[in-house]
């Protein structure tokens, strides 16, 4: 079978599985297996696929049609213009989370200390350090497996003076330490929504997505515990669900913070900025 025909059949397999980005996903998987970029697909549209290539592509196609996210099939995801390795042990970095990096870079003073709570693939911490080499960047995760992925990414994308990783729940590894910026993309999806979400989410680590108390539990924990870990005037930056805006605006001031909420490019409330008074 030739490449262009295979692409068309893969696209229709994905479309029948209800995947909205059928053509894009088919192209990304073909590029991955054949080692091409998207221009290469056009230039080699008449290329005859050999048995080995077809076997691998059919296998990936079946898994994608079963709604495994593309990033887990290729093992990589671009975030903040850097290519991160991802496995099912970590949440796939989302474009909207790039805002957290922007805000962390904006608020961190020269030579300042930044902490990323629940770092997962290390995306936020590594993107911050990659952009601002002057900063001391620390990161924690409760999952040993996630930290392994983060360390691989740190090793690949940064030099040896990269991010310092610690295993532990929230602030546990950092007693007695203070930071200028604390940043986190915690789990914040309401478990009651589980059955109405995209099938792809069921392949990601559930502990990185869902949190009790309608999705608020970990966000509240971070707000409640963060004060002693912040230098005066420091900020906590937390990714939130749009529906949490009013709650955070009301809760933050009760815990000693001035609050502002920033929206993402889609217009949804996305980043809570909490300044220590
Ligand atoms: N924004 C993600 C989603 O809805 C959730 C990420 C998270 O819980 N931190 O897919």
Description:
By secondary structure, this protein is an alpha/beta fold. It has 2 domains: 3-66; 79-276, Vaccinia Virus protein VP39 (Rossmann fold). Helix content is 40%, strand content 19%. It contains 11 helices and 9 strands. The protein has helices at 3-16, 22-34, 38-43, 51-65, 70-74, 98-107, 123-131, 144-157, 206-209, 217-226, 245-254; strands spanning 76-79, 82-85, 113-117, 136-141, 164-167, 179-184, 230-239, 257-263, 269-276. The protein has a 7-stranded mixed sheet with strand order 5-4-3-6-7-9-8, with helices on both faces. The longest helix is centred in the N-terminal third of the chain and has 15 residues, at 51-65. It starts with a helix and ends with a strand. 36% of the residues are buried. The site of glutamine has 8 residues, from loops.
What's the helix and strand layout?
Layout: H1 3-16, H2 22-34, H3 38-43, H4 51-65, H5 70-74, E1 76-79, E2 82-85, H6 98-107, E3 113-117, H7 123-131, E4 136-141, H8 144-157, E5 164-167, E6 179-184, H9 206-209, H10 217-226, E7 230-239, H11 245-254, E8 257-263, E9 269-276
Parallel strand pairs: 3-4, 3-6, 4-5, 6-7
Antiparallel strand pairs: 1-2, 7-9, 8-9
